[in-house]
Amino acid sequence: MLTILGKRTSINVRKVLWACAELGLPCRQEDWGSGFRDVDTDEFRALNPNAMVPVLLDGDFVLWESNSIIRYLANRYGGGALYPSDAMARAHVDQWLDWQASDLNPAWSYAFMGLARQSPEHADAARIQASLQAWTRFMTVLEGRLARTRAHVAGTAFSLADIAIGLSVNRWFETPFARPALPEVQAYYQRLSERAGFMAHGRNGVP
């Protein structure tokens, strides 16, 4: 039985839960993080020295970093699903996974925390506006990509890239602000909503 350490409101924990659902992997999730069990302890730092969630336990094997975890799950248990073995096809999945982590998520982080989570530490109006502008710019990149594939982020097939980016798209629609119309992103959101794993761990009413 796989064990996932991290609270369900964490977008990175939700990546792992959704990947397990897509792969049909039974797992146990334990609530760690703000409001739950403290990650800033010797016990947790022995698993992840960064004191961050999620952490995956697969028997004696311990892994942290959400994108690394979902790659591992697909590699070990996926049988080619979600993460293609062909080098070029896999590179496109990796490209969009890395884009989500390094470009898209940092763009929306401040605005999301200020507007959706109402965090007092993220209340600077100028910084919120700058975050929204950056977020919109990257979502426009995604709009262009989806206009070309007319399906999923890395190509025609659903992949790990859609798990990572799909959760960020959910936050785009769950954050209260006057967002521009992006019809391809909207259509993509509806396609993802046909997947049980996304409805359970993405579009489930939790921003």
UniProtKB/TrEMBL annotation:
The keyword Metal-binding does not apply. Residues 1-81 form the GST N-terminal domain. Residues 86-207 form the GST C-terminal domain. It comes from the Bacteria. GO terms for molecular function: glutathione transferase activity. Pfam families: GST_C, GST_N_3. Its EC number is 2.5.1.18. Keywords: Transferase. Belongs to the GST superfamily. This is Probable glutathione S-transferase.
